[in-house]
Specification:
Blueprint (H helix, E strand, L loop, with lengths): L1 H13 L3 H6 L3 E7 L18 H9 L1 E7 L5 H10 L30 H7 L3 E7 L17 E5 L11 E2 L2 E2 L1 E3 L2 E2 L6 H17 L6 E6 L11 H10 L5 H26 L6 E7 L23 H4 L3 E4 L8 E8 L2 H10 L13 H4 L10 E7 L2 H4 L3 E7 L2 E4 L8 E4 L15 H18 L10
Parallel strand pairs: 1-9, 1-10, 2-12, 3-4, 3-9
Antiparallel strand pairs: 2-11, 4-7, 5-6, 7-8, 10-11, 13-14, 14-15, 15-16
């Protein structure tokens, strides 16, 4: 009890009253990796790769052990983080793609984004890296609350050096088409460093930086010198795995480069840094989500569990852990509260600031909802869903297979489907799922006709 009290007192020194916080709110940085699996960072036990800089961030901050992504794929999670609402309530139940015939989301223009809310609270807002929430007005970053954008509008790059997608250049500085040279991970880090350097010259205005890497999303394309280094250190490693290890370690190096720059600029003492991933790793591309079952695209926990770290300036919280069960769009609510900004009264996200003060979040179990809509012949434009309440998880992994039910306390690796033997719980969760789907159905996920 004395330890908890000490943490609360220390944290309170940095989390002052709302009135004083409005006068000197912290800078806020969200670093999000792309398809970084739960088991592909060494602080969570990866046996064949090293991520010393992400590990260091975890040791300097709070490590969250039970956080999940909002979706099993990219766009829906990003939309949820931006809006603080479940993916289908954001208008993005599926992946936003360059081909309109295979596009399954449209970020609702009626919703405020995290950048909008922070901008209204006096923040300078910047986005660097992957956007993936729209290719044209009104859904480009500079029309959704960001003062500054330097990055890639599209979903994925066909090549980390040419930066093209289907032969089209989606690299932008603001709205201007650019043709930068270099590996995308290096470029995004360089641009993020340029952003914080510029903001450090104007310390009177807090900033929010959304740094979204493409790595380690396929194509698994590390720089050649990083791949050679990995192969020399692991001579018997399968090539696909070696490529992924090298790409992740290169990402880790760049995260470290950026964090070092924060320190050199003297920004660390008033900056909160969060790090996470948009979904689990892709098993066909030799990524790992151990110990959880399956991977990207799946509602089993290998597709949902993600690394999740928040570093605050409260040194006594460094190296602590939280077992709170939440979703990565909780960063939306957390950042809004830290900034003293106006919260969305209809948000689905939950602020984690109690944990950042060394306090408990309470014991009431929270219901978590997941949705993904997809095309091709397996999904045919249909959606599939999951819901978690307490220890129970109801799910399916395509629109047509039967629902499955798991007791996550007795069976955390989801090997024993108990839906036939636990009908009461199954029916309760089915009722919740119906209500979530009805709410999501109120928000269009296609652009209106021109």
């Amino acid at each position: 009890m004395r330890v908890l009290f000490a943490l609360v007192v220390l944290a309170a020194a940095w989390f002052p009253t709302a009135r004083s916080r409005a006068a000197s709110p912290p800078n806020l940085i969200l670093i999000i990796a792309d398809d970084l699996g739960y088991g592909d960072v060494s602080y969570q036990g990866a046996p064949d790769l090293k991520t010393p800089r992400i590990d260091q961030l975890a040791s300097e901050g709070i490590r969250f052990n039970n956080m999940r992504a909002n979706c099993t794929v990219c766009s829906p999670t990003r939309a949820a983080i931006m809006t603080g609402r479940y993916a289908d309530r954001s208008g993005v139940p599926g992946v936003i793609r360059t081909n309109p015939e295979n596009n399954w989301g449209y970020l609702s223009p009626t919703l405020s984004t995290l950048a909008d809310r922070l901008q209204s609270a006096g923040y300078h807002t910047g986005a660097v890296g992957k956007w993936h929430l729209g290719l044209e007005a009104p859904n480009v970053p500079t029309e959704r609350g960001f003062d500054f954008f330097h990055g890639f509008l599209g979903d994925m790059m066909d090549d980390y050096y040419t930066h093209l997608r289907g032969g089209i250049n989606f690299m932008r500085l603001g709205t201007k088409v650019i043709e930068p040279e270099g590996h995308a991970t290096d470029l995004f880090t360089d641009w993020a460093i340029e952003f914080v350097k510029q903001r450090s010259t104007e310390p009177q205005q807090p900033f929010f930086l959304y740094l979204a890497y493409n790595a380690p999303h396929f194509p698994i394309q590390p720089p050649n010198d990083w791949l050679k280094r990995t192969q020399q250190a692991n001579p018997g490693m399968d090539l696909k795995r070696a490529q992924n290890v090298a790409l992740v370690e290169h990402l880790d190096h760049n995260v470290g480069r950026f964090l070092d720059q924060l320190d050199e600029l003297g920004l660390r003492e008033n900056t909160v840094v969060a790090f996470t991933s948009d979904n689990g790793g892709s098993l066909p591309h030799a990524q790992r989500n151990l110990p959880w079952r399956d991977g990207k695209q799946s509602h089993y926990d290998g597709g949902l569990r993600v690394p999740f770290i928040i570093r605050t300036p409260v040194e006594k919280l460094a190296g602590t852990e939280s077992d709170y069960v939440g979703l990565n769009f909780d960063l939306h609510a957390t950042f809004v509260e830290l900034a003293g900004a106006n919260a969305d009264s209809d948000t689905d996200a939950v602020s984690l600031t109690s944990i950042l003060r060394g306090e408990s979040m309470g014991t009431e179990p929270r219901e978590l909802y997941f949705v993904r809509r997809e095309g091709n012949n397996r999904y045919v434009g249909g959606a599939y869903h999951a819901v978690i309440r307490g220890k129970w998880k109801l799910l399916r992994n395509d629109p047509y297979s039967p629902l499955e039910l798991y007791d996550l306390e007795a069976d955390p690796y989801e090997t024993n489907d108990v839906i036939r033997t636990t009908p009461r719980i199954a029916n309760e969760l089915k009722g919740s799922l119906r209500r979530h789907i009805q709410l999501g159905g109120q928000v269009p996920w296609q652009a209106p006709p021109q």
